[in-house]
Protein 1
Amino acid sequence: MHIVTDSKYVVDGMTKWLPKWERVGWVDVSNSDLLQELVALLRTRSATTTFRWVKGHSGDPGNDGADRLAKEGARKARPHLPLHLPAPRRFLKCGVEMASLTQSLAYRAITLSRQQTVNEATAQRVKIVIDEVQRWSGHALTPMTLWNSLRSDVVEPKVRDFIWKTLHGAYRVSSFWARIPGAEQRAVCSVCGVTDDMTHILTKCVAPGQREMWESARHALLRAGVCLPPTPCLGLYLGAPALSIVGENGKERHAATRLTRIVLSETAHAVWAARCERVVQWQQEPHRVHSLLALKSRWTAALDKRLWLDQQRTRLALPGRRPLTVSVVESTWEPLLDPSIDRLSNWVRLSGVLVGRQV
């Protein structure tokens, strides 16, 4: 059997690093569960297996076809995915070799062997996000895909942290204050008189902020051919980093996908920031609220900063970020640019380019 793949990690792992991985008991090996299954399946064969690496997205028919089928499979609901029997464990080495064992390695191995408990509240929030994303897009999303999407550099680090903490219920809202004697009133929205949880803050509060920014995001994405629901949706906010926009031909619209992820995630964070300013910084002025102009300026400024960062990434190597091509930035932001600069072919290299269309 001859295996052709665009993953150097898999090729080198199976041909060079496998002995070392087994000596250390697969500790600190990325995707070790999948790799161990691959090793066990290959060892059930008596014939020779060879590996060959090809460059991804280079026009190789087999590789491009595999990518297309993998994307189609990832979008299918779980009942439609193929099932297979697990690989026999007798073909795998278990544990760490004594000659390779160190105190540090033993500690990490023991830590990894302990069964991790799943927080029920977090699992429920993730399920809500997955259901709402599937209801809107029609594409299945797995919890692993959602968590992995928070590592994407399309979304700003502070926004990724906000989404991660919201999914884990780490912010001090609603039930957090209800358990503290004398602070119970902070668990209730001072404007609406209901429990001030994240669902209420991001999607239901009638105080100026969430509806106005959602409308701005909805009209902005409509220019890119993306139609959001008329009312704010918690699942689309928290699932934004994992969203994919697919065209009528069934292929992903990469520019629209990237813009949607940016706009929705930045909007969610802007709504939260405006709420914190109103509730925390202005707590001595309970009747003070944001003006519509201030909210629009805050939302536009957040997108202007993201556009500026994308421009910087076309010419500077920012820490922890992959460089961007000019074509990626152009295709992402063109629907939102001020019409007066549309005719400038080199606007990506210019300073002072702003999100300027009426959204």
Note: The radius of gyration is 24 Å.
Protein 2
Amino acid sequence: MAASGVEDERVRKELGEKEEEEEDDTPQLSAVAAAALLEFLEEQRRQEEPDGAGGGAGGVELVAEDWRLSQFWYDERTARALTEEVLRLVSPSGSGSAAGAVACVACPTLYAYLKKSDPGVPAQLLEYDERFGQYGGDFTFYDYNRPEELPPAMKHAYRVVVADPPYLSKECLEKVAKTVSFLAQPEGSFLLLLTGEVQKDRALELLNVRPCGFRPQHSNKLGNEFRLFTNYDPADRLGGWDQSDGAPI
């Protein structure tokens, strides 16, 4: 029995040493890499949590950005400035009652802020991402590759059209321009276009819009210079038309 006990103890010791060796062979993250991984996981967790428009104090919720769909939400300053302008345009008398509807083409941040500021404003979100189907009748599926495949009732139905093409290509802007023409009322409509500075000349040619002094920003900073273009001069709002851009007014 004593000899057997000694043998068992020896075997346990050898197994323990082997396990320690195996543990030593396990790849270990450096402190820097571990910190970076934790930061990445925390960012993923934060993005997966639904964000209330305007910081979560009620209102319509935004889903997390999907960069694969070229989604980049506006920061709060930008969203509020656009919301104030759009509400002014749909209610020009200042009475608070909407005199026209708003089409938000691929700009869900604006839609969310509009609904938070004035739940009664008639606004329609046109989006490719069907997660926004949570908005019910205010959501219309939209693929810019099929710019006019929209419900007939939406044709020339909007006093204000706000468009944010998902890509900075010529093709994308040309197709979104067709959508804008489909949606906008033939007379007296207002267009706000949010896209890259590189699209300035093409935007003027296709939609007769000019850059404003106001510079939109996104929650996640983008490398491209982003601009707001309008087909009307906002005067003392949104910095007015940028007189330094050289385009004839």
Note: The longest helix spans residues 2-25.
Protein 3
Amino acid sequence: MATQKLATLYNELQRAFDARPSDLKKCGTLLAQLKVGLIEAGLLIPQGETNLHDLVVARDILEIGVFWSIRAKDVPSFDRYFSQLHTFYTDFRSSLPPSKREFAVRGLNLIRLLTQNRIADFHTTLESLPLPADEINTNPYIRHPVNLERWLMEGSYSKVWNAREEAPAEEYKFFVDSLMGTIRNEIASCEESAYDSLPLKDAATLLFFPSQSGLLVFAQQRGWQVDLTAGMITFAKKNDEQVEIPTQKLIAANLAYARELEQIV
């Protein structure tokens, strides 16, 4: 390692991260210190001639940072660590030994893109993976987000829900839960438009809540009225708004558009 201090901190980070459960507070403190050390040693953004062993250690620190961010539910931190890792996965790919965590990290980033509804970026990132097309369905870390994207496009939300239990790593469940939050809000909007009320049991099933307590919290957030005695939910209805159509302005705009077309012809 570049310095003995960095080596000591790195060993402490590994012990704190590998503990069961991980010592998240200690990991966060050590990661902050290690990032400063990596910057000082020129390893956070490597340039020029750099010791390969030091690069492997720097990559490992950033990978631990990715998983720590998810466990700590710090999504902006995840984005930063992944961005910093990108250099190691691309520019130094041919010179560094493969990382056992690389595709787990890349898979997490793919699901992160899905939670942001960045479908185009999802496909661009998928196509740029250093993985043959015929291996995508055999790599569990990449197959999982690929399936999620297909099910989301199909509207197969029950499959998305079930995919949580099939996650290849515990950290994947965090982003699947985020996806389910978006899906629940979409379903809830449809329910509010289609029904005046629903039985609690039916609403819980439609919204993929395994317990009534989760449904009650969600109902409160949506402003729904819950009657526990009757076992019913009454949806909040927005007042019908009168939308005034600016008829004269539309006519004037259309006439002006027609005159422009005549001039072009």
Note: The beta strands are 197-199, 225-227, 232-234.
